[in-house]
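Chapter review: from sequence to fold.
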Amino acid sequence: MNQQVPIAVFASGRGSNFRALHQALRAADSAATIVLCVSNNPNPGAFDFARQQGVAAARLSPKMFAEEKEYETALIELLANYGVGLIVLAGYMRRLPHGVVQRWRGKILNVHPALLPDFGGQGMYGLNVHQAVIAAGRTESGATVHLVDEEYDTGAIIAQERVPVLPADTPEALAARVLEAEHRLLPRVVMELVARDFG
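The token string follows.
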């Protein structure tokens, strides 16, 4: 592979999927490189890891702009300045502006902590997802990586990894098991997509 693929990772929190992806890309000597970490929060844990790894970190939130369109323009300019070819949402809690989705359509991935299309949509994040899975009496949950479109969690599903829901599970225990699946699934899908679409 001779084409370098700059990746932007979007994360709202501690960035454990960001870490897993970064480490996997390094270990595989992939042509894909994370060049930018974007967050809507002022100083998430993901930024600490980004700085340790020499990855640029930038906060952009709609709250920083008078109009949504200004936010969209700033985000597009930021991504374009870094030559971003692929966007990965890794624990990112906001919907991307339409202009970003249109410009990078088919090149934006999200990892979701449930087996979509079930337990997705607005408000389905963090422990909310795992509480809902347990309350529904499901015996299986897992992680989904899907393409991002203009709505929450409705884009085409690329891959899933299933994990059991155990009888004594708490939302926290199920979350930990699903997160391990996310850490395996997301890097694999990213590297497969890079090899297929950019190789």
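Two observations follow directly from the output. The chain has six helices and seven strands. The CA atoms of residues 105 and 112 lie 18 Å apart.
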